[in-house]
Amino acid sequence: MKQNGSDKMTKVIAHRGSKGTHPENTLPAFQEAIDVKADGIELDVQLTCDGKLVVIHDEKLNRTTNAKGWVKDLTLAEIKQLDAGSWFDERFKDTKIPTLEEVLALLKINQFRGLLNIELKTDRIEYLGIEQKVLRAIEEADVSFTIVLSSFNRDTLRRLKALDKTYEIAFIAFGNKYDIAWLDKHRDVNSFHPDIRWLKRHIDQTTHIENVRPWTVNKEADMVFCIEQKLAGMFTDFPKKALEVRDNG
């Protein structure tokens, strides 16, 4: 059977930017990932009520901003008034929730040449038209780095493939035998992003999948596991640490 990731080096992908050291899904977190030379960056996109793409993980604002309520209920102008940094550390006071376009611009300015994983957060709210908007933003940004589009929502993955077969599509899951069966039936979705806890117990079920990148790999032992298994990549909140483990191991 084909080994995950072939003989290539396991890519270190900064989960929501450098989430462990900076406020997640913000420009400072992405800049840190760039500065430590992470191989890739992961982010989450949702839609405001006026149809703009914003980079935030939770459907509600409560955890990572100074506001409460749903992302989908605010306009972009209202979202931009929020403080998305103080919750993490006062040093990041008044850090804003970025648009996807702002993150793409930051990566271009920094001449990023790695992998950008854009997760469409449609597992709880199926944002109408989000797939088209993400694809349009990528096209208009004219990026020179690798794009991976991912989601927990299988319908989102189907729509992405129907709209544009250019980009790698990845299925995110906690992991079970039904997920593997679904992937086996949908060969056009050639990447799997499972929970690291599940993967460690069921690595033998994934050796035929081209790109396996587990989340969230923060323990050194789990980092070593991913490297030894020659996985395509790993999502981590601590990209600097993961790079040190991989490159100095």
TrEMBL record:
> What is the species of this protein?
Vagococcus teuberi
The opening ranks of the lineage are: Bacteria, Bacillati, Bacillota, Bacilli, Lactobacillales
Q: What is this protein called?
A: GP-PDE domain-containing protein
Q: Which GO terms describe its molecular function?
A: phosphoric diester hydrolase activity
Indicate the segments forming the GP-PDE domain, all copies. Answer: 10-246
One of its GO biological process terms is: lipid metabolic process
